[in-house]
Design brief:
It is a single chain. The chain has 14 helices and 36 strands. It is an alpha+beta fold and 680 residues long. The strands form 9 sheets. The protein has an 8-stranded mixed β-sheet. It has a 6-stranded antiparallel β-sheet with strand order 18-17-16-13-21-22, sandwiched between helices. A hairpin with a 5-residue loop joins β28 and β29. α7 packs across α8. It starts with a helix and ends with a strand.
């Protein structure tokens, strides 16, 4: 008798749904067995894990019954015994290897030892235990970062932050088994299974290994990335609403990478796996995130004379990028670098020859300690790199600096609040205030540590170029709503900074982009010539009609508008704005009170906001403990302004606050997402 219910309650593992014992390390659990005819002191227990268990690798433990639990190794203490059964409390050390164990008992009573296999159990990290490397003192944070199956991932851009729900589902079905098999399919395990398993006591090691395994690069991992804008042969990354479907597909296909993911998908799947194994983990969104491919803490963007954003060089600035933070101690670096550690499963740059990233100590990133393990320079650049905008002439190959910005990168770094569906800004935990001397000092310190201060960089702008002052300033203002289906209204505001008139030739373009700002299709272009009186400010209205952009828009619903201003006898001025459009709304209502094991109706209402019919309408619904798997409903076409109402039933399986995730798509609108909290 594994005392499944009682042990699970004590070990915070009640949400796992299987019939195998799941417990956390460094904490006692009880087993009762019968068929022992002899005194208990003759019993020896054997706990073993991995392919070739040994005491040297700490994957094999043998222990007899003692009077008190050991704080060092495995131990067994007698709880009670009767004529034919015995109850034993078994404890594992705080730093035990995690994974699936085989437990057997050996008795030596009749002179010749006989061994009986008791079965298997799974041992996980224990954030509730002060001796564990993942110990998290706050109960509320343990609830959120280990036990919570719902999350909010922030997206959009720094001027317009939006969030969507995600079902991590770490306790559903066979997700635990899948997470254990992810570890056994890593390159590290394939090369040397014995050593790999012996390192599984260490969250640092596992975090790094799993950051490699969640992407398909190198190791046939879980998710295949695709940033092309076309997603044939797989699912569009924006269409997923939870990790369960992805992990199940990976297993069902015989462990073939699931198509397709982008950064938030990698981060969400890694959150599921790490929470499942007991490592406190959350998703982090960084707005205006730098991908510094050449490691010079600088990202370069190039534009032609017409204002088109050119794809030159490997650097890029993403509207947003999502990674993970996991909580554990850094015994390798010292106590001041413990706490939140950055892991990133999105395959951007290789580290140690494979696509993995982290753990990088967040404190080390903030203090510019870029020489500390692992991958600190890359993460430091994501939130701190300087930005250079260049005009590139393809005919001559000449590039001219338009402007440089040191405060552009790493804005509104965001995560979900503990216990609430709100956004929390953690930018200050990544860097000192932008524009402060402390922030610039840290940037110089990082450059120095990377050897960038002392070496001549022929690609860098000269101090004179950086110091030049423009004669005019410009910005795009949004006038009206930013919604798919509506015309886009902007104002280009130009101001003459000089006490004498200035003539300006303005070339404007608008392109549909991916969230990585990669230009996909041209939507619109225009040019104007203006003369500005001394110190004058003028506004020029711009209207991009829905029927102009509708065909060109990507499923990321992002548009980059650029104006390059050629100023008479002055330096060029670049004005740009990245626009993230919102989808129209969908409304979700729970009709009645939600109770465990009682059906309750839900109604989803969508009104077609445009003046043409929408077709191929599909509604997808999921939610842990509210329904099993994913419900997919087809909805008939909707004429202009027509309203649709769709009803379906939920059958809640557990009490408490649960989240229902709804995703509506049709030929004109992709992945309109919302979530609804349901109190069961």
């Amino acid at each position: 008798d594994w005392h499944l219910k009682e042990n699970a309650r004590e070990h915070h593992t009640s949400k796992f749904s299987g019939d195998e014992l799941v417990v956390r390390r460094g904490q006692a659990f009880t087993v009762t067995f019968n068929g022992t005819e002899q005194p208990e002191q003759n019993l020896i227990f054997i706990a073993e894990t991995g392919p070739k268990p040994s005491k040297a690798t700490k994957t094999l433990a043998t222990f007899g019954i003692s009077s008190t639990a050991s704080t060092e190794g495995w131990s067994a203490v007698l709880q009670s015994s009767s004529s034919n059964s015995v109850s034993i409390s078994i404890s594992s050390p705080h730093n035990a290897v995690i994974g699936r164990y085989r437990l057997s008992v050996q008795s030596t009573a009749s002179g010749s030892p006989s061994t009986a296999r008791l079965g298997t159990f799974v041992l996980l990290f224990n954030p509730w235990s002060s001796g564990d490397d993942v110990f998290l003192p706050s109960q509320a944070e343990c609830e959120e970062y280990v036990l919570e199956e719902f999350g909010i991932i922030f997206a959009g851009n720094k001027d317009h932050i939006s969030g969507f729900g995600w079902n991590f589902g770490q306790f559903q079905g066979d997700i635990l088994d899948i997470c254990l098999s992810i570890m056994d399919r890593s390159l590290y395990y394939r090369q040397d299974p014995v050593t790999d398993v012996s390192h599984r006591h260490d969250p640092r090691y596992l975090g790094r290994v799993l950051s490699a395994m969640v992407n398909a690069n190198d190791d046939q991992g879980v998710v295949l990335g695709n940033w092309s804008g076309t997603y044939e042969g797989g699912k569009n990354p924006t269409s997923w609403t939870g990790s369960g479907e992805i992990l199940q597909s990976w297993k069902k296909s015989g462990f073939k990478p699931v198509r397709y993911g982008q950064c938030w998908v990698f981060a969400a799947v890694l959150t599921t796996v790490l929470r499942c194994l007991g490592i406190p983990t959350r998703t982090i969104t960084n707005f205006s995130s730098a991908h510094d491919a050449d490691g010079n803490l600088r990202v370069d963007e190039f534009y032609d004379a017409e204002g088109n954003h050119l794809e030159r060089g490997a650097d890029s600035i993403w509207n947003f990028h999502v990674w993970n933070e996991s909580w554990f101690t850094r015994n390798d670096l010292g106590p001041s670098y413990s706490g939140w550690q950055i892991l990133d499963a999105t395959p951007q740059e290789q580290s140690g020859g494979i696509y993995q990233c982290g753990p990088a100590s967040r404190n080390a990133v903030k203090e510019g300690e870029v020489d500390l393990d692992y991958d600190c320079p890359f993460v430091f650049a994501e939130v701190n790199a300087d930005c250079m905008y260049w005009n590139y002439d393809s005919a001559t190959g000449k590039k001219t600096l338009i402007l440089s910005k040191s405060t552009e990168i790493g804005a509104s770094i965001s995560t979900k609040a503990v216990g609430r569906d709100d956004r929390v800004d953690v930018t200050r935990d990544y860097k000192y205030e932008e524009g402060s001397t402390k922030e610039r000092d840290i940037f110089k310190k990082a450059r120095k540590k990377l050897g960038l201060e002392d070496k001549f960089d022929p690609t860098a702008p000269t101090p004179e170029e950086i110091e030049q002052k423009p004669d005019i300033s410009g910005k795009f203002k949004v006038a009206g709503s930013l919604e798919v289906g509506k015309d886009l209204h902007l104002l280009l505001v130009l101001a003459n900074l000089q006490p004498y008139p200035k003539t300006v030739d303005v070339k404007m373009t608008a392109w549909s982009t991916l969230y990585t700002r990669r230009p996909v299709r041209e939507i619109w272009k225009d040019s104007i010539s203006v003369t500005l009186s001394p110190k004058e400010e003028k506004q020029f209205p711009i209207r991009i009609k829905y029927n102009e952009y509708q065909q060109q828009l990507t499923t990321d619903k992002t548009i980059q508008v650029t104006a390059i201003c050629h100023v008479e006898d002055g330096i060029q001025v670049l004005v740009q704005r990245n626009i993230a459009l919102d989808n129209p709304a969908i409304n979700v209502q729970v009709l009645g009170e939600a109770k465990v094991n009682k059906e309750v109706d839900v109604e989803v209402v969508f009104t077609n906001p445009i003046d043409t019919e929408v077709m191929d309408c599909v509604l997808q619904v999921e939610g842990s403990d509210l329904l099993t798997g994913i419900l997919e409903l087809r909805i008939p076409p909707l004429k202009a302004s027509e309203k649709s109402s769709t009803k379906f039933k939920l059958l809640p399986s557990e009490a408490g606050p649960k989240h229902l995730l709804v995703n509506f798509s049709c030929d004109k609108f992709t992945d309109i997402k919302t979530f609804k909290m349901v109190n069961v």
